[in-house]
Amino acid sequence: MTVPHKPPPSADADPVVPAEALASRPAGAVRARPASRKVLLLSCAVLAAVLLVSVVIAIGLGPAVVAPGETARHLWAALTGGRIGANEVTTYQIIWQIRTPRVLLAALVGAGLSAVGVAIQAMVRNALADPFVLGVSSGASVGAVGVTVTGGFAVLGIYAVSVGAFIGALVASLLVYAASSNRGALSPLRLVLTGVAMSLGFQAVMSLIIYFAPDSEATSMVLYWTMGSFGAATWGALPVVSAVVLAGLAVMYRYGRALDVLSLGDETAASLGFDPDRHRKVLLVLVSLVTGVMVAVSGAIAFVGLVMPHVVRMVVGATHARVLAVAPLVGAIFMVWVDLAARTLVAPRELPLGVITALVGVPVFIALMRRRGYTFGGR
Amino acid sequence: MDLKLDGLSVVRDGRSLVRGLSLDVPDGQVVGLVGPNGSGKSTALRCVYRALRPSSGTVWVGEQDLTRLPIRHSARTIAAMTQDGGIDFDFTVEEVVALGRAPHLRGNQALSGRERELCARAMDQLDIGHLAHRGVMTLSGGERQRVLLARALVQEPAILVLDEPTNHLDVRHQVDLLSLLRGAGLTVLVVLHDLNLAAAACDRLGVLSQGRLVASGTPADVLTTDLVADVFGVKASIVPHPLTGDPQLLYSLDSTR
After folding, report:
1. Contacts of A266 in chain B (CB under 8 A)
2. Which CATH architecture has domain A91-371?
3. What does the alpha-carbon distance between residue A374 and residue A352 come to, in Å, rounded to a whole number?
4. pTM of this prediction?
5. Are A31 and B88 an interchain contact pair (Cβ–Cβ within 8 Å)?
6. Which of A337, A341, B5, B247 lies in disulfide reach of B23, CB 3.0 to 4.6 Å?
């Protein structure tokens, strides 16, 4: 992760417009409002419908293919306590016990990563920031690998690794916070630099643990945490993840205008009545919690949190309330399809998610960036 | 509304940036702060728009101590045009100007019709109406300065502080901006580098040197050959403006001591 610096303000070359020409124009007459609230609501409704359809299709696909209509019938039966035939029990179990939690988790994590990416880019005023820039993912990896190797938290059963990862993520955030705060102030650049440095430190610790680990389980664990997978999804983890992610989305949305103001710089934020440090602290806690929970259940899925915010901004503009309404939906749809590709393309093997997010996303992103005159965090 | 700096001091990392600065900005007047680079002008301003808490001393806004007011509340009274105009996200001009309403709105609350009208008027006033849908990152330095001032104006403040507002502006827009400030009827505290513009635009001037106020008064009283030599280290010939009578400084290139 590199840290771009702001380009110096360009030299002035204003064309001078005659004052009379401007004075004679009625105020407000020339300006149509860009995407109005109605258009935005409609787009969100369409995206939500696409998400729903994507979820149903993705649940139906896999080694045993179930038609979308059949899938919907099974899901309906599960939700309403309806009846299914005795010969359909296996299909029902595949759909409800195995695939549904996995696809829902993918949607949640896709939504969460996109929203956190939006918030964190504004919060540290850096277009190259992603949810893992503050060391959360490498902290989680250390936690997960540490638990695997030492066999800690055994009482928690299958959730031991997730709990270890979550604790690792929070410890990492706390360390980054403590190391970068300076007399109570939290400068964006310090935050990013500290996060990058800490990430490298955690990676070293992780390598060390693996190097001295007695078995090879730790090695596959590392691949899992650095590339991401929804293979371990269960119904058990979903309530916690969905509560944290959905609450996080709601709070971030409410901070929409605060994020606008923060992204204009600390001096401006203060003059507009927003204490930049206080807002950054609240956001840091929020972002760390949401990211920590997501990393704990899915590993660190690269790229989504970096690129989705940009893709969405290209379409709806930079206003955060708008970006934060659309980005989670787009991120969720994207992730559902990525996960489907991950588990079906080379079945019965599974591709790591990070591989697909990068292979699919990078060309799409570059194409979009070239097509629109989008200024990617600078020139 | 009166603005009063009372014994303001700022110490950062053991260095005194502003030392016991007292300055009155009476209601409706334009007061300029001048001084060499690093003399504490911007630091003093930052205390007024609350990017910085003074180490000691008080900023009085009307009858109220600024630090006792909630920051959101004071932002409805005091607007600032600051120096860090660097915006990394592709907001349109219209969106940035509309953010001037942020201290008046709750959360993501939409702008009312009156507020949109206010934004449109401010953009026209500053000659940026034609840029409304342009991305701010594509603007020239001078255009961006005017966007920032429009944003400060739609805040509908009683007090406006500006840190070198004429930076990057061409001559025509420098003159336009300062006459707009004079005609706005606001209480204005402005940091200016150009002493001639300061003399023309300000009712009173305060001169800062190494964090201390070394002179204050009307431009004619303050801008003397001796003071300019002392504070800025430049020998200047001072002549009255042929039309307005404001003191104007003439320098020659070998005039540094």
Report:
1. 51, 84
2. Orthogonal Bundle (1.10)
3. 30
4. 0.86
5. no
6. B5
